[in-house]
Known about the structure:
By secondary structure, this protein is of the alpha/beta class. Helices cover 31% and strands 25% of the residues. It has twelve helices and 14 strands. The longest helix has 17 residues, at 227-243. The radius of gyration is 23 Å and the shape is globular. It starts with 31 loop residues before the first helix and ends in an 11-residue tail after the last helix.
Amino acid sequence: MLDTQDTYAPHAPDRVATPLPGAASSAATPSPVSRLHSAIRNPQSAIAAIRTENVSRIYKVRGEKATKGAKAQPLTALGGVTLRVEQGELFGLLGPNGAGKTTLIKILTTLLAPSGGLCYVDGLDVVKEADEVRRRINMVSGGETSGFGILTVRENLWMFSQFYGVPTKEAYARIDELLKIVELDDKANTRVSSLSTGQRQRMNFCRGFVTDPKVLFLDEPTLGLDVHAGRIVRDFTRDWMRQDPTRTVLLTTHYMAEADELCDRIAIIDHGAVLACDTPSNLKRQLQTQPVFAIRAAGVGPAQLAALGHAPGVQRVTGEPAADGAGYRLKFILDDEAAIGAVVTALTAVQGRILGLQKEEPTLEDVFLKLVGRSLTPAEGEA
């Protein structure tokens, strides 16, 4: 499998530069949501930013103990994915490790060929028109170590801008502005090898925007960032898209709150298949008929979750230590509200003592649990 750290070296693009967020704008632009609603009402009004039709990817692998010459067995990473992402949309792709997200992104960014199906980015076939696709895209992966340690931050970003043919004067202006936005301007002349993990990730984030792509792939962009830096990244991404209604972002993240906050629509993928695709609010509305209760209890822990999960009317239960250290926080997804009586009985049976109980509105995490059957990042003692 190819490494996500592969970088592009496309020919110089023939595009007019677009100012960064904060620059003067002659007219207000519609919000991403309003553009999305317009596209949904009139789907043929514009070329989709990303379109896949029954895309599959099959690998041939051999087991560790297979004898020499043994026939390779097929492994399906993608089993027929069909998606459409509109121009101007911030689209989220959620799924557990091994769900097929990285494989799909590699196909969309021309790093990997599909085994079957069709795939288009900005109206271009990613297989037949790969060079032109590369001119219009960029990608940032959380935790990657791209760049040359001997070069400074500013030199690295300039080097990547030259792969896309950005004029030097224009590139340096963008670099200086981006470094200021992510609060890395004081490290502009520091060698990359001297940066901390978070600082390097902020530099990689700048690299994704310095070429002014039409379609940007953000693969866990806030991984390794502190809360403040993560907020800067999210705010800048929204502002950058607001600046130009044709810009599009495909985001993958392991942070449900981040996806809920940023994304116009979200596709949930597992085992190479799309399980659901809709706006965050519509996805959460799917669980409106299935009440969720949060219970703080004493005398219970991971060992009791299996028994609680088998109580009548319980669809799913997860648990984790309470944030303040007082008791254990349990979350139950029930068939109906009447099942809370069986939950109380089950808690009593395992010597649990209820410290607090409240009904919760469904969250994106609840939707994910319902569709996938496990957490995006499994919590301690999930059952």
